[in-house]
């Protein structure tokens, strides 16, 4: 452990990289701890991003994150490809410990770790994970060419995945626990207009069935009105039921709500600990967009700059 840095940014999604661009351009040379396994955040697992302003023809999620990384590096950001395992955020100098043992110190920390996939928690999910059960259609859709696929969820992610998976599956069935969808109207319209997609609604997945040799083979669903159980064939089971904030590593070093979302002071990005700021999906349970995370990353950088200037 040697120099005391101006700013450590934990997380490398739109919030983290935007904070780094702003801090870098202001001369604060931020260090980003980007994550070892999933740098770039959720957009790395997204296909076409059509709603990020400035890209009228859309841009692939990984390309957008690659561009953000290069932009942050252009303004002097240092990137460490590791996970943070523990933090000590009290006092004027904060300490961050990485998985490979590296200890870093800084006067400010920006928490921008985003969120991670939510699991169904039903029998068979863990057993067939990677053997039929997947949380990323872009990553795994290809493996189910010509096979029956189900997608579970009723939000934009589920609809995006279902539409994408029609390129591969012999059938795509979207299973949702209600008959109303959280997904935007345009996504629902597109899916309903696609004859390759069928719907099983008001139904909850009870378990995922399969065999040691073949992996997942079907899901058993319980129809909520009748209580009846039916089996839907599925070699690919894509779970798209949302995300939880990736904040467990903080061990409650800053105040959080009951679901683990970091609490900030009003419209600022200030957490309960002076010199520690938070941005993106680790804070925001409502908007959760790449552009809103980027905007919050900008605000976190400006809040951190104000703190650094006031506490020289
Ligand atoms: P989401 O909007 O929170 O939707 C999660 C869905 O999963 C809901 O329909 C929910 O059901 C269902 N669900 C949650 N827990 C469940 C459980 N234990 N068992 C069964 N079903 C469960 O999450 P998301 O679809 O990942 O989207 C997250 C955010 O990203 C949203 O703001 C979305 O608009 C955005 N997004 C945008 C795009 C795009 O614009 N292209 C693409 C993907 C995501 P209920 O409805 O009954 O609660």
Which features characterize this protein?
single chain; 312 residues; 7-stranded mixed sheet; 5-stranded parallel sheet; binds NADP nicotinamide-adenine-dinucleotide phosphate
Can you walk through the features of this model?
- There is one protein chain.
- Helix 4 (156-165) links the parallel strand 11 and strand 12 (171-175).
- Strands 1, 2, 5, 6, 7, 8 and 19 form a 7-stranded mixed β-sheet that branches.
- The radius of gyration is 21 Å and the shape is elongated.
- The chain is α/β, with parallel strands linked by helices and 312 residues long.
- The chain contains 6 helices and 19 strands.
- Residues 51, 118, 120, 153-158, 160, 177-178, 182, 240-243, 288 line the site of NADP nicotinamide-adenine-dinucleotide phosphate.
Give the tally of β-strands: 19
Helix/strand-derived class?
A: alpha/beta
Helix content: 10-25%
> What ligands does this structure carry?
NADP nicotinamide-adenine-dinucleotide phosphate
For the biggest sheet, the summary is: 7 strands, mixed
Fraction of residues in β-strands:
25-35%
Overall geometry comes to elongated
Unreliable runs: none
Instruction: Give the terminus-to-terminus CA distance.
Output: 21 Å
Oligomer kind: single chain
Taking all Cα atoms into account, the compactness measure Rg is 21 Å
Provide mean pLDDT, rounded.
95
Short précis:
The chain has helices at residues 14-25, 61-74, 137-140, 156-165, 185-192, 290-310; strands at residues 4-10, 31-33, 48-49, 59-60, 78-80, 84-88, 94-98, 103-111, 115-117, 133-134, 148-152, 171-175, 197-200, 203-211, 215-223, 229-233, 236-239, 243-245, 276-278. By secondary structure, the protein is α/β, with parallel strands linked by helices.
